[in-house]
Amino acid sequence: MSYTETVRHELLHTDVRKKCCRETELWLFAYLALSAGGGEKGGVCEAGKLKGGPRNPLNRPDALSRITYLAEKVTGAVPGNTEKPETEDPVKAAVDYFKIKNDAEADAEIFLRRIKSDCCRAAALRVFFSVAGTVSEPDKSKCYAEIYFDTRELAKAYADILASFGIAAGVSQRRAKFVCYIKKAESVSDLLTVIGLPGESIKYQVAKTEREVSNNVNRMMNCDIANIEKARAHAAAEIAAIKRIKSRGMYSGLPESLKSVAELRLEYPEANHAELGAMLIPAVSHSTVSLRMKKIIELAD
C-alpha cells in the first residue's frame, strides 16, 4: 500500500464525534457519490464531480464503510434493520439526506463556503482528501500534497478553507483537471494535523528536522574541506617562496623572525598559521605568522 493510500485509509477510519461534523461528511460523501453517477441512476451534480483517484467513494470498501457509519449516526440507517426496511440501505439514506438538506441546486462550492466552524471545515478537507488527494512520503526531499477537482471554483473553495487554517495552497490547471496543491513540508504537516492525523504530521516534522540536520552537517563538512584546501594552497605558496629565496642565496640574510617561521613551515607543511605561531619561542599569534609569511612571499617575488 502506498503512503497516499495509507493516509486515505486512516482518514476514512478517523473518529468523528460531533454531530455537525458527521452531517458535513455525510452530505459531501453523498454529493460525491451522486456526482460520479453512483447511488442513483443517471447521477446528478455533473458540474462538480471529482476526478483523480477513486472519484466515486462507493468504489472504495473503506469509504462505503464510512458512509454506512455516518448514515447510521446521522439518519439511523442500519443494514439489516427489519424494523425500518426503508432505511436499511445506508447509501440510499445518505442520498435521501443529501436531497433533504440541499435547499438549492447542488453545489459543493457554495456548501463549503457556508461552513462556519473549524471542526466542520476540517471534516470537509478530510472528505475530499480521502477521495481525491495525494501526498508525498515524509522522507522525500520534495514534499507536496495535491487534491484534484473538475472545477476551478471548487478547488479555490478548498484552498480558501486551507487558508483559514493558515495553510498556504495554490490552484492550477492540469489538462482538464484543477489541482489544489501544497508544496512546503510544514504546510503538509499542518494539513495532516487539521484533518485528524497528528501521527503522520509528526513523521513530516521528524523527517524535516533530519533533513535540516543532514544539510547542516554537509555544509559544515564542505566548509571544513574548503578551508583545508585553502590552507594547503597557502602553505604550498609559502614553501615555494621559501625555496625561491634559498635558490637565490637570500635565505641567510633573512631576519631571524622570518627565518624561524620559514624553518617551521618547511618542517610542518600541513600546519596552519596558528599552529606555527604556537611552536615559536616565544609563541606568537596567528596574525603575526601571517604577516611574516606575507613578507617572505614579497621578498621571493
Could you characterize what this model shows?
The protein has 301 residues and is of the alpha+beta class. The protein has two domains: 3-196, Endonuclease I-creI (Roll), CATH 3.10.28; 233-300. It contains twelve helices and four strands. It has a four-stranded antiparallel sheet with strand order 1-2-4-3. β3 and β4 form a beta hairpin. The longest helix is centred in the last third of the chain and has 50 residues, at 198-247. The N and C termini lie far apart (70 Å).
Oligomer: single chain
Q: What is the number of helices?
A: 12
Q: What portion of residues is helical?
A: 55-70%
Shape: rod-shaped
CATH topology of the largest domain: Endonuclease I-creI
Question: What is the number of E strands?
Answer: 4
Going by CATH, the architecture of the largest domain would be: Roll
Q: What's the domain count?
A: 2
Give a brief outline of the structure.
This protein has 301 residues and is of the alpha+beta class. Helices cover 60% and strands 6% of the residues.
Task: Give me some keywords for this one.
60% helix; 301 residues; alpha+beta; Endonuclease I-creI
Indicate the topology.
Elements: H1 3-11, H2 19-35, H3 61-75, H4 90-101, H5 108-114, H6 118-132, E1 133-135, E2 145-149, H7 152-164, E3 170-174, E4 177-182, H8 185-194, H9 198-247, H10 256-267, H11 273-279, H12 286-300
Antiparallel strand pairs: 1-2, 2-4, 3-4
